[in-house]
Specification:
The complex is a heterodimer of chains A (115) and B (531).
Chain A: H1 2-7, H2 9-18, H3 29-41, H4 43-46, H5 51-57, H6 62-65, H7 75-84, H8 99-109
Helix pairs in contact in A: 3-8, 7-8
Chain B: H1 13-27, E1 32-33, H2 36-40, E2 58-60, H3 65-78, E3 82-85, E4 104-107, E5 114-118, E6 123-126, H4 132-141, E7 146-147, H5 158-163, E8 179-185, E9 191-193, E10 228-235, E11 237-238, E12 242-250, H6 256-268, E13 277-279, H7 281-291, H8 308-317, E14 323-331, H9 333-348, E15 354-361, E16 389-393, E17 397-398, H10 402-419, E18 424-430, E19 434-444, H11 448-467, H12 480-484, H13 489-505, H14 520-523
Helix pairs in contact in B: 1-3, 6-10, 7-8, 10-11
The chains are: A mainly alpha (115), B alpha+beta (531).
Chain lengths: 115, 531
């Protein structure tokens, strides 16, 4: 969703100048789809400086608080937390993000994590 | 269905299982959601108490109005209450959870099409699952010539927000006022199109004239349980030439009445042409902190409501006054000049008033302060006490007379001190005239004692307000009867009228029993249970 990306562009630019964002390997088709769904469904809270990122930053370093930068995520964990909710994040229903899209989001967020 | 799932009240397990089979025949097995994991996702995420008291027995997720028609017919045969939700994100009012435990949630989120955007006539036709982000994107894709009036968090449904009398911050601030034409599935499975949608075959008039011929039904389906809205037209604001932001600050604790009385004539004659929000000193401190992810403990660690002298000191050290108001104006640049001059002249007469303004011009990127692009960060306030949090809104409608607003605020503030919560309070101008005095009680959901206090504070405020002659405009699913009780004129004639309409349209009471305190004859026996 380019609109939301654009809205957050200034914040992202600020974050990029503050620290180095790791260069990503090319995304698989599933990861690309995952990024697209993440942008629509997750970015408004998990973008730089957003509610979810800020909430995580109270508990961990900033590079871990931004989910897209994580290198230690596990796909099962990502999917489970989406469905169960964590902290003040409510559970995400299947009608909002179906299982295939949830798998794609997990694939995208775990792209830099060990398998 | 797992062993721990509740059953719809008065329905046997055998009947319920039979109904689930029939529901699956309509929407497919994948979209009859009965597992514990799935039912968990329908609990109220911000529940002010035990979320299980509002647990559903299952959820159904249709994709068309025809499927909704088939589902309500089955529900009628088996006397199964359905709780329709559009996106289920009315957080702090119950989310996607039903009033009556064991109801089946009718989850309309998959009906998520923006059916039409009409730049020429200034409207969109949407389905219930479309949220403000979706509509914003659809409008941007067509050149951004029309603007939404998004509520503070943009997660919710465009239809749901309008039906619940939600507000945004443009001249089209009250979204219910922008409804023009609906498609509604009634409890008996009939489908009706309101207004010009009734003309057969229809032309281009459904979304341009609200009144049709005969009685106007649209608003009857708002804050009610008389039908399931499956399509809705909504008028949208044509992109203006310019937008001006105003941030006006008054210095002293006693300045609330003069703030209200100075704003009133400016809003009444439309000089201020969009809703304003007054923030009390607590909110003026808490909002910017929450937006940055900071919680209460970073500035204050004591129990109870933060003392007023501490609050005053904090604001003064930031160069801010005790009462602040923010609003945006929408016009041409020249029009904004005239409006600004009038507003400045009015506040020049108020000692200590500071007026700050900003402007946006067509062609520049949309700025956050314009509040026309959806966001979610206002939800961050729920973590004020550290979280995981929730909040309860108290929302009495009050005439914008300074002394009357101050009287309600004083009542609210005393109770917040008594119950030991920071008195976060906004004053939301709704429509041209009213103010909703809107304190929010933030609480940590895992702190049972704090949650109980928050719940008791809400109940006390409903009674205090009713005793002074006020009524709330909206309520959480746990408090819908409490607020209905505030409207007691002539032995609750308004509720009795609602019940008569309910009985006529939905004799088995299958649609959203308990919604806004409307139970109907068939389900009234369940009122107040399990409390």
């Amino acid at each position: 969703m380019n609109g939301i990306r654009t809205l957050l562009a200034a914040a992202v630019a600020a974050a990029a100048t503050a620290g180095v964002i790791a260069a990503d390997a090319p995304l698989t088709a599933q990861q690309q789809h995952g990024r697209k769904v993440f942008d629509i469904k997750c970015l408004p809270c998990h973008g730089p400086g957003m509610w979810g990122t800020n909430a995580l930053a109270r508990r961990m370093p900033l590079d871990k608080a931004e989910l897209e930068k994580r290198t230690d995520l596990n796909a099962v964990m990502v999917k489970t937390l989406m469905r169960v909710g964590i902290g003040s994040m409510p559970p995400i229903r299947k009608t909002e993000v179906d299982d295939a899209d949830a798998d794609a989001i997990a694939a995208y967020l775990t792209r830099n994590s060990p398998r | 269905m797992t062993a721990s799932a509740p059953l719809p009240p008065g329905v046997s397990a055998a009947d319920f299982n039979q109904a689930l089979k029939e529901f699956a025949g309509v929407v497919g097995h994948d979209w009859v959601l009965t597992s514990e994991e799935d039912r968990h996702t329908y609990l109220d995420a911000f529940a002010p108490g035990d979320a299980d008291k509002h647990a559903c027995s299952a959820a159904l997720a249709p994709t068309t109005a025809e499927e909704v028609q088939a589902l309500v017919k089955i529900a009628n045969r088996h006397r199964i209450p359905l709780w329709p939700v559009s996106t289920g994100r009315n957080l702090a009012y119950g989310g996607s959870a039903p009033v009556l435990r064991g109801s089946v949630v009718l989850d309309l989120k998959r009906m998520n099409r923006v059916l039409e955007v009409n730049n020429e006539l200034g409207y969109a036709l949407v389905e219930p699952g479309v949220n403000f982000f979706d509509l914003f994107e659809a409008l941007q894709a067509q050149g951004g010539k029309l603007w939404i009036s998004t509520p503070a968090p943009g997660w919710g449904s465009v239809i749901g927000n309008a039906l619940e009398h939600g507000v945004g911050y443009t001249p089209y601030g009250v979204n219910a006022n922008s409804i023009c034409g609906m498609e509604v599935v009634l409890a008996n499975g009939d489908v009706v199109r309101t207004g010009m949608g009734g003309v057969n075959p229809g032309g281009q008039e459904w979304q341009v004239f609200k009144y049709g011929y005969g009685p106007v039904w649209d608003l009857m389906f708002t804050q009610s349980n008389f039908g399931v809205v499956t399509k809705m037209g909504i008028w949208l604001l044509p992109e203006p030439e310019a937008v001006a932001n105003f941030a006006i600050s008054l210095p002293d604790m006693g300045d609330l009445p003069v703030m209200v009385d100075t704003l009133r004539p400016l809003r009444l004659d439309d000089t201020i042409n969009a809703p304003y929000t007054i923030t009390n000193p607590y909110r003026s401190i808490m909002d910017p902190m929450s937006a940055q992810g900071k919680t209460r403990s970073t500035i204050y660690k004591g129990p109870g409501c933060m003392p007023l002298d501490f609050v005053e000191q904090t604001l003064r050290s930031r160069g801010e006054g005790m009462w602040n108001v923010g609003f945006n104006l929408f016009d041409s640049d020249k029009g904004l000049d005239l409006r600004e001059a009038k507003i400045r002249a009015a506040f020049d007469k108020v000692p200590g008033a500071k007026v700050k303004t900003m402007r946006w011009h067509r062609g520049e990127p949309l700025a956050g302060w314009m509040r026309v692009s959806p966001v979610l960060f206002p939800l961050a306030g729920v973590d004020w006490y550290g979280g995981p949090g929730g909040h309860i809104n108290y929302a009495p409608v009050v005439a914008p007379i300074g002394s009357r607003i101050a009287e309600v605020y004083d009542m609210v503030y005393r109770r917040y001190v008594e119950f030991g919560f920071d008195c976060y309070c906004g004053f939301l101008n709704i429509g041209g005239r009213a103010i909703v005095v809107n304190p929010c009680t933030f609480f940590n959901r895992e702190d049972a004692e704090m949650t109980r206090r928050a719940r008791e504070l809400a109940r006390v405020l409903y009674k205090d307000g009713a005793a002074k002659g006020f009524g709330d405009y909206r309520a959480h699913i746990s408090f819908m009867d409490d607020v209905a009780d505030m409207y007691g004129y002539n032995d609750h004639a308004a509720r009795r009228l609602g019940d008569k309409v309910k009985d006529a349209l939905d004799p088995n009471g299958i649609l959203a029993p308990g919604k806004q305190g409307l139970w109907g004859s068939a389900q009234r026996v369940h009122k107040g249970k399990p409390a």
